[in-house]
Amino acid sequence: MPIDERDRLKDQPFDYKVTKAGKVMIYYENRQIMILSEKQAGKLVRKLDQADEFNTQLLLAKATGHFKHGNER
To answer: Per the confidence metrics, is the pTM higher than 0.85?
Structure first.
């Protein structure tokens, strides 16, 4: 039985930092896994600022390719 990716996000601690230069560094389990340029990160940062914890995890998972669910709504 496949595990729903949405349930797994609760256990996946993504985090991010915005640098002074406007870059976004994304961390997964305290390891840096991705850096987005200021141009790439602008829209994502605006969404992250308005998101609750679950949606923050979801947005970061999608940005890094860790979330691949066929039934997104």
So the answer is: no
Average pLDDT over residues 5-34: 83
Separation CA 40–CA 18 (nearest Å): 12
| Residue 27: how many other CB atoms lie within 10 Å | 16
* Domain coordinates in residue numbering, the chain: 5-64
Residue 71 has pLDDT above 60, yes or no: no
Q: What is the pLDDT of residue 1?
A: 36
HSE of 10, CA atoms in CB hemisphere, 13 A: 4
- Any idea what DSSP says for residue 51? -
What is the residue-wise DSSP string for 13-31? -EEEEE-TTS-EEEEETTE
State the Cα angle at 13 between 11 and 47, rounded to 5°. 115
